[in-house]
Amino acid sequence: MTPILETTKIVDEVMLARRSVRGFLPTPVPRTIIEDILKVSAKAPSGSNIQPWKVYVVTGKRKEQITEAVLDVFNDPEKNVLHRPEYIYYPKNWTEPFLARRRKVGYDLYALAGIARGEHQKMHQFHGKNYEFFGAPVALMLTIPRVMEQGSWLDYGMFVQNILLAATARGLASCPQAAFISYHQIVTDILEIPADEQFVMAISLGYEDTAETVNQLVTERAEVKDFVKFCD
After folding, report:
1. Residue 232, domain member (yes or no)
2. Is 125 part of a structural domain of the chain?
3. Are residues 15 and 169 in contact, defined by beta-carbon separation less than 8 angstroms?
4. How far apart are CA 174 and CA 84, in angstroms?
């Protein structure tokens, strides 16, 4: 196999292997590995090379503090109603095929978790695992300067994807999480994030717990013909 074909095979395998994991082992991740992941991820393209990202690597007591504070609000309806996201992640009005895709992944995930339709308390408890970072030993909390506009958010997505792929290539599992955006103020206060930075999302990072049933989730992808139009 030629070097180009071998490289293509490796890159494709990493992209195909990447998936969102919702159960991690407590095994620590060496700081050098985290630094390596972020170093190569910073090669992501950005308009005029402005590189509009900042990362807070959170472990240990500070991560536990975030979990405790967010769960305290999440589990209290009176407190929870006071917290709202700074930006809207999902559409206000769902259309097809997006609604069907969302429902299917939700049904599949709850089925693996042993949660039946209508078991709202169990759903709530399962959703709460987001705020425990699914047991991951490392959390990456990402921010963007508030002065940046929509184009920089596009750049940011490429940076995030680089992180996920770089982690996968090193044998680590990950889970990008928008669940924390409703609790951006809690994260901001605990990490002392400056007011001129906006919280974007979290990424849980660590080694997969292969005994966790929900990690068996396999998400479907549309065929190329379903989302591509070749214009000659």
Report:
1. no
2. yes
3. no
4. 25
Both tokens of 46, joined, read 């950005």
- pLDDT at residue 1, as a whole number: 61
Cα radius of gyration (the chain): 19
Q: Which CATH number do you get for residue 144?
A: 3.40.109.10
Q: If you average pLDDT over residues 209-232, what whole number do you get?
A: 97
Q: How confident is the model over 37-66, as pLDDT tens digits?
A: 999 999 999 999 999 999 999 999 999 999
Q: What is the pLDDT of residues 87-111, one digit of tens each?
A: 999 999 999 999 999 999 999 999 9
The Cβ-side half-sphere exposure at 124, using a 13 Å CA radius, reads 11
Quote the CA–CA distance of 167 and 177 in Å, as a whole number: 15
Distance from C-alpha of 46 to C-alpha of 98, rounded to nearest angstrom: 28
Report whether 59 contacts 138 (CB < 8 A): yes
- Tokens representing 123? 């759903």
pLDDT tens for 108-135 read 999 999 999 999 999 999 999 999 999 9
| Eight-class DSSP state of 220 | -
- Tokens standing for 95? 């259309």
